[in-house]
Amino acid sequence: MDRSLPIWERARAFYHPPESRETREPRELREPRAAAREPRAGDVILALGAEASAAAAVLADGTGRPVHVLAGELSGELAGELAGELPGELPGELAGEPPAPAQLAPYAAGARTVCVVATAARLGAATVAALQDALRDVRWGLITGRDAGGLAFVAAKQRLGAPRADAVHVLDALHAGDAPADAAAARATQHARLRCDAAAAWIIAAHGEGAHANLHELVLCGAPRAGELGPRGCRPGAEPPRCKRVHDPAVQVMSFAELRAAELIFLSCTGFSVAGQHHPSAASAVLSALEGTVRAVLTTDRAIEVEPGDAHRVAALRRAGVGLPALVELLNEAWRHELGIAPFLLVGDPARGGAEVPLARAALPGVLELGPAGHHARRTADRIWAVPRTSGSDGAAGGDAGEAVPE
Question: Could you tell me if 46 and 115 are in contact, meaning their C-beta atoms sit under 8 angstroms apart?
């Protein structure tokens, strides 16, 4: 792909040929127009703050989804710091108090999907936790960006068609072991593919802290496109690239924004960190990925342990056509049943399609076994199982509760 093209042209070309009549410039989508079709019952768009209303209109345009705006003031200085425009350390909670449960409850009631649109400065940990709690019984996702313009860009990408590439690639940097020379050579090949290969989805399992991913001889950096301020700030786009997580000149640096994929599934500790809470930096894996061709990210909001094989099982589900909204639900159900947590969240439009989970059952023996309604998922060492919801099945690890549900 020609890197000299403006970023919107590069993103548009990734999904459609430039002459396609289905693609339009984001500026043409800024103002809402009459709905092209009736909305599906219960599809809702919720904008957190007036600055998110234009991006919400992009999503609603042509779909008929109602847009609701939760008003609230946001300091322009704080938003500027998050965008990397101002020096100084970022405070722990940029957006002030999270929405109260009473504010969010009306939008969850009777909803099929809820798409929350908000600038990154509003999505501190307390706000994300409030959303997770209030929307736990509906399918939901986030559209976010560093500022209102970034929001509109991400929203416009949701309107594009399928990516031209259909491959699903996996890079598991957690379970590669300590490297004989042939393993290092294999990783070098994977890193070259990461830079060059177009994909429908990249699934990356790696150590990280929400802003970087350690891939051994390569580090993915989440600094803003213009880089961070200060002599020690990350500048992955500089020549040579610079990253504060890299101290060995043999280790390469690559921006998350350089990923040539429509989706990123990022299995890492606290992959979702966009409000500058974990460290005084504007770097964010999610925000950086969304500045390129990526339009949807599935990742975690807390520290998790990724087991050997998890990345490949997730890849098998995605290759079978299970969409990210359904995949988030499946993974959260499995982790909730095993560990009592629901760590995965979707950055993307939850109303976008993809197969529901049960459709993958027959195609994935040994990876996913699902029974009829009334069963729930459970992860074990070698697969994701379904466990009957009976009085004798408490979901504890081991024992008969781990037997796969028969056809």
Answer: yes
